[in-house]
Amino acid sequence: MALKAKPGDIFALEGDLGSGKTTFTKGFASALGIKENITSPTFVILKKYSLPKNQQKISFLIHIDCYRMESELGAYSIGMDEIFENKDSVVLLEWPSKIKEMLPQRTIELKLEYIDETTRKISVKQINKDFEL
């Protein structure tokens, strides 16, 4: 999925605690060539990683965790609307239901489910018509 990502793509990762959202992000970042250690942005809300030169022309991976946001007002206060308009980044968003109303229509929604200690199920809930799996 990461190798087909384009600048401006937004991936909304929905799932319970322990369903693998941050682990998914680590794999996604690795596939894009990011060497930094990817950690959950739960307490800082947002982390931005620079990408090495890549064929997809993506400059940044932005990893956002909305778990602690009380409302969409918190999202606006960190400039989430501007982040969504940015066309040189790919955004991976954890707990997107907290800001559901402000998600752009082009958002790619993924549902992660815990199956057992070593197994997760990932379902595409909504696919951007411009995104090809």
CATH class: Alpha Beta
Number of helices: 3
Beta percentage is: 25-35%
Element-by-element helix/strand order: EHEEHHEEE
Please give a structural write-up.
With 133 residues, the chain is α/β, with parallel strands linked by helices. It has one domain (2-126): Rossmann fold. It has helices at residues 21-31, 72-77, 80-85, and strands spanning 10-14, 46-50, 60-65, 89-94, 108-116, 119-126. Strands 2-3-4-1-5-6 form a six-stranded mixed sheet, with helices on one face. It is globular and about 35 Å long.
In short:
By secondary structure, the chain is α/β, with parallel strands linked by helices.
SSE blueprint:
Layout (H helix, E strand, L loop, with lengths): L9 E5 L6 H11 L14 E5 L9 E6 L6 H6 L2 H6 L3 E6 L13 E9 L2 E8 L7
Parallel strand pairs: 1-4, 1-5, 3-4
Antiparallel strand pairs: 2-3, 5-6
Features:
alpha/beta; 17% helix; 133 residues; 6 strands; Rossmann fold; six-stranded mixed β-sheet
